[in-house]
Amino acid sequence: MDVRHNIRLLIDQLSLSRGDRTLIHGLSLCVEPGQALWLTGPNGIGKTTLLLACAALLSPDEGDIRWTSEDRNIPANQALAYAAHRGPERSELRLGEELSFWQTLLNDDMSLNDRLTSVGLQDRDDTPVAGLSAGQIRRLSLARLMASNRAAWLMDEPLSGLDVDGRALVTETLSQHLARGGLAIIASHQPVPIIGVTAKKLVLEPAISGAAS
């Protein structure tokens, strides 16, 4: 059964720490297909830590994080794609080579040119990754999310470094993803406009406990 667009996130009594500092305590929430969760709060409060835990890249101190479909647990690497604030771009490659690598890894069935065009990078395929602007790196991260065909998108500061057109691209692409039944967890200092959806907002505070509103 194809579960890529029928995924939900369940968090139960989650506690997370870094070193000897507790960042999150007793957090419970649910994100359903078609929903977005906006994580906000000051630097160092735990937004990225929570994303890493949701991506199964960091183990909780207590509590449970589950990705499910039809009451079945789904491994995180089958449920989600993660766009980190600083991605794994390899500076020795050109943009087309970089994205082609990810398309092959993720079994993307769209052509390289079409995928580049979808994020406005069609004229940059020969540009060295090391020479890309911050906004172009963000567009590359968005292309990787789209290529993944995963139901859940985890996005760390997706608007950072983008101009007006780039922000509009994120809004449009994310809105389409949610309309198809995907979900998104977005860590951002600023709201990410989404067409037709009001994101749940979770303001992270010292040793936050409780649930999203």
From TrEMBL:
For this UniProt record, the keywords arranged alphabetically read as follows: ATP-binding, Cytochrome c-type biogenesis, Membrane, Nucleotide-binding, Translocase, Transport
Taking every annotated instance into account, which residue ranges of this chain make up the domain ABC transporter?
9-211
Q: Entry's SUPFAM superfamilies?
A: P-loop containing nucleoside triphosphate hydrolases (SSF52540)
Q: Name one GO molecular function term.
A: ATP binding
Pfam families of this UniProt entry?
Answer: ABC_tran
**Has UniProt tagged this entry with the keyword Acyltransferase?**
no
GO:BP terms for this protein?
Answer: cytochrome complex assembly
PROSITE patterns given in the database record = ABC_TRANSPORTER_1 (PS00211), ABC_TRANSPORTER_2 (PS50893)
Q: Does the keyword Nucleotide-binding apply?
A: yes
Name the NCBIfam families on file: ccmA
Q: What is this protein identified as?
A: Cytochrome c biogenesis ATP-binding export protein CcmA
Originating species: Algimonas arctica
Lineage of source species = Bacteria, Pseudomonadati, Pseudomonadota, Alphaproteobacteria, Maricaulales
UniProt lists the gene as: ccmA
